[in-house]
Design goal:
Layout: E1 36-44, E2 47-52, E3 55-61, E4 75-80, E5 90-95, E6 101-105, E7 113-118, E8 122-128, H1 136-149, E9 152-158, H2 166-172, E10 179-181, H3 184-189, H4 191-197, E11 204-208, H5 215-222, E12 249-252, E13 259-262, H6 306-311, H7 317-329
Length: 336
Amino acid sequence: MRRYGKHTDEDDIRSRPNRRGNRPRTNIRPKHEDAAEGMVLTVDRGRLTCLVDGRTILAMKARELGRKAAVVGDQVALVGDLSGKKDTLARIVRIEKRTSVLRRTADDDDPYERVVVANADQLAIVTALADPEPRPRLIDRCLVAAFDGGLEPLLVMTKSDLAPPDKLLELYGDLDIPYVVTSREELESGGAADRVRTFLDGRVTAFVGHSGVGKTTLVNALVPEERRRVTGHVNAVTGRGRHTTTSALALPLASDGGWVVDTPGVRSFGLAHIDPSRVIHAFPDLEPGTEGCPRACSHDEPDCALDAWVADGHADPARLYSLRRLLATRERSEGD
């Protein structure tokens, strides 16, 4: 066996010939220090539309990122052709750290979570007051996902000309969630968009809701120059709407620098990925009371310290009820 000393000559070292003629593999990856910064606007079959210096460009994920996927709202670093011209393609070489993540699963038995949007500040939960009927359990699930992902919730109620909002407002009043009530007439006149826009100033807001509630119609009113496909009708038999938004899309608000993210209508909102212990963080008035709870307390059992915390006057009993309702919704289906 041949041994080499400290001072070997490179000519003495044998290397295997590369039959394919390509460059040898290496674990050293380029740092791409000169990469441009951009924001992912939408994703379609492996191609990502990004905003870079005011230009929209088409990009693909670099192989070096492995299985790490970029989603709408991600801040990314890009190299390659950044001209934005037709038939050009850039590469996303880095995905920056996310400030928030909205996730969902197909159902509560699905172990695979899906990231809906990254880096959003706010989640606008859009629900119709009638046609189709409100689904409080779905709203609860969206609230849990928002609290867990670090987004502030906003409740947007549409079609108030068909039914009053009183019942829903009573149900969610104790959660101190900001809300907006709109009607069809206001959507057509633009008044609803103006009132909703006051909550979106300078923020990235993701809009979610099941089909037929008027979500995309509202987004179209907020960003008229970026019209989405006209919404579909509500099925008179099932009470469900037809999907008209097929992929999440980030759209800029013209005046205030904010963004709205229109997402596909959802039939369900699974919470298999949610750790129930994190939901308490959305209730700062109740969280200190959990210090006396037994280990792994579900906050809905006889030994839960929150009962005594509320009984001593530290928090409103309605707030504890709201917390337990949100925790319980993970164990129920949206249609219950």
